[in-house]
Amino acid sequence: MKTFRIGGVHPAENKFSAGKKIQQAEIPKMVAIPLAHYIGNPSEAIVKKGDLVKVGQMIGQANGFVSANVHASVSGKVNKIDVQLDASGYKRPAVFIDVDGDEWLDTIDRSTVVKRECNLTKEEIIKKVQDAGIVGLGGATFPAHVKLSPPPGKKAEVLIINAVECEPYLTCDHQLMLEHGEEILVGVSILMKALEVEKAIIGIENNKPDAISHLKQLATAFKSITIEPLKVQYPQGGEKQLIDAVIRRQVPSGRIPVEVGAVVFNVGTTYAVYEAVQKNKPMFERVMTITGKDAPNPSNYRVRLGTYLSHVVEQAGGVPEGTGKIIGGGPMMGRSLMNLNIPMAKGSAGVLYMRDEEAVRRPVQNCIRCSKCVSVCPMGLEPYLLMAQSERNMWPEMETDRVMDCIECGSCSYTCPSNRPLLDYIRYGKATVGGIIRNRNAK
Amino acid sequence: MEKLIISPAPHIHGGDSVSKNMTGVIIALVPALLASLYFFGLGALIVTVTAIVACVLFEYLIQRFLIKGEKTILDGSAALTGLLLAFNLPSNLPVWMILIGALVAIGVAKMSFGGLGNNPFNPALVGRVFLLISFPVEMTTWPVVEPFSMSYLDAATGATVLSLLNEGSSAIPSAKDMFLGNMPGSLGEVSAVALLIGLVYMLIRKIITWHIPVSIFVTVIVFSGILYLVDPATYISPLVHLLTGGLMLGAIFMATDYVTSPMNPKGMWIYGVGIGVLTVVIRTWGAYPEGVSFAILIMNGFTPLINFYVKPKRFGEKVK
Amino acid sequence: MNLVLISLITLGVIGSVAAVILYVVAKKFHVFEDPRIDEVEEALPAANCGGCGFPGCRGFADACVKSDELGDLFCPVGGNDTMKKVAEILGKVAVAKAPTVAVVRCNGTCEHRPHNNEYDGVKHCFIAHNLYSGETNCSWGCLGFGDCELSCEFDAIKVNPITKIPEVDEDKCTSCGACVRACPKLLIELRKKGPKGRRVYVNCRNEDKGHITRKACEVGCIGCAKCQKVCPHEAITITNSLAFIHDDKCKLCRECVIVCPTNAITDVNFPAPKKKKEEAIVN
User: Fold this and answer.
1) Min CA distance, C127 vs chain A (Å)?
2) ipTM of the complex
């Protein structure tokens, strides 16, 4: 069984919500649709207070190439455009809409029939994906149309679909594959057409045997799509790790995957691409997992963008007693949330409750130089060294020791027997060194 | 729910801890301890208990009165140092010498550098080498094996295999006796089989990786094997090298000490090869019949250099 | 006798060979350095803080000697006196600068700005800032983990354990600017020390709109522009709902302090507070 070749850990999977049918979350009274993205410039609002909008109508225009359009997820009246605390932990611009009914744009095909034929050209597909505001749903929310347009001179050879879902607890991709396997495969063939590649591989960790067999069965009808079961190992969902696991090529430091001939899309993104291209449905909802050890009802919901998390959480039975921390996303790379009055964004894969005793970090001890961080680092870095350098502000040394390669997967902090905050310091160093490099390049 | 806790990712921890690792090593040492209790009886018990108690006590006293730092005696590292120190001593060593050894190990080699994690040299070995140089006679007269012996200071003594060979004698025990540990020696080092059981345990629990012990074994076998092939009359056979003296104990428990060994597989290989070569060199041409402790301490000194120059295999570096 | 002779000769030969080698090497690899660099360095405070923008005092001395004008070169630690000395040594003219001091522009104490979450990462401002906006509702204010305190070479800035806001010891502060660079929230500014240390400044950096600032902090600047209107010297500008007092125009009349509805403008080192201030709150 394949997996990536350097480092890796295996946290307890705790996939409580596995096999729970995706439910449609109720539409709230008001939504706050974030205009800012995790990466790239915030979109510019193109509606104003008092405007009436329909579901699917564009309300935010992409600002620059690495940015994405934003669409209304509900129909109603724009209440205001103001800042709103979001999952990033900062107040950023959002469009507030008072909901009135559920009126969709006429162009959107709401039937559930799977539409398999796609006669569009490459350019038309990319245009549709870009218009629909599709971003990567794996976490980094990188605009999909950018990935579909590789830099000149670079040509993708193989499309890799990330269906790994290596984060513990989360099951939204898993459930999506079980319920919409065929749509996903159509999405894959659309992406193959857009990238002009002959081969696509779907990488799935073998803790999802039902999804593997389901997709394998469906894939017989599609030529040149293969399913690759992978050994469970975190962070296999990392783009570079997945490429290494599936096609045994390692992306060199500072390069992008297409330079080794691979383009990676998340399985959720693939589904969104299908909806955008075949059904004219822009990205205004996604599947998210509500889970946790004490969660009254671990479940998967399809939620409209901009819905306050508190609204979704209530439908799933509310926050359990003794919750000390709430995480947006998975436990390894997710962000802890200040409260639940945070709108759901395109990158929100889940809400995870942590008990009080799990939430607090254990006391930090001396580094005993056990080298476990070095052996688990999937990028072959030396976290103990980078942390020490970061504490002492040794930026040039950090750059030579390749801090910029860090993918912030958290394997080092997860493993450290002395509970040292390795990744905290490495992020600090990475941010500072990144700034230094940008300044140098600007000169 | 009053105030939520915010912290950077990752939000879960694997549950590994310093004390778990230290206890793991101590458990791995239990077979060897049982073997030494069998072979050396009461003496082994007295030496072991004294060394452990002394190390823990000294660490406590130093942290309490001298550096006033955080108390770390419960993490098991001091007890482990004591146990390893005892394993490196003959079972008829007087208590006061053990106390001096423990003081040097904990006070000089460990706490003066800032405690666990900061010591450049293996504390137990520093203690042992200090005793070896200060009290050469007491440290090199080993009691002969006598199952469940009740004698301590008055035990009958004999020479180890290596010193016999060093003096030109050829009356050495059979391979089976050497493997089981039925020969004179420091109390923990004699039984190769018990130490190997410990190694297997540590590998299964993933406390250490295989690189250091294996690289030491391979180097010793290859290097001494070449010498043996050149002239079997002058040089000791690889098997004797492997099974006698402190090699097993050193390679499995002393060289693999977290703090003083290199941080990545490539470095570990260099370190292990260095130890293997130095051990054979000291044993063959040096004044001392045994050289594992010196070899390990010398390579401990090289560890920072190895860490500086030898980097792990980075992701995306040329792969075949 | 022979032995003595042999040792004498051997040692003598070794000695002379070494001497020759040393001489040759010293000549060959001699680096000429302007002796004035040493003199200037002597005159500098030897704090090596980097406040001048050069790597250490020697770097600064080197720059002083090499440049034609002392114009932009200034040692914030030594101040005008040191620069005068340097100018004398080099025969150049020093430009006098008004003494400045580090000012922390946040008054969001625990009392004024309630905490609504608990940070459990590394207690380091930059790391917390990188993660999220902070333990309070205000995304602009002080995090209180003391990066500035760590950066200060002169022990002049300390986080008050009760208010969790750093305080500057004006006598010790040399305005080297290390804390200014260390603060991820850009709260610290070097301001004119002012006559008798009297200063007026806006004690806030919050650029959110007024209603958001209000909710987050009792003493935040809400950008109401009252101070701007009342200022007779046009020293106050408002950008992004945040007032800023330009210290080169401010005449320390303190009209703005009185009108500010949220007490966001602070005056320091003035004699006993006037009664007007309390009246202003009543209004």
Assistant:
1) 6
2) 0.90
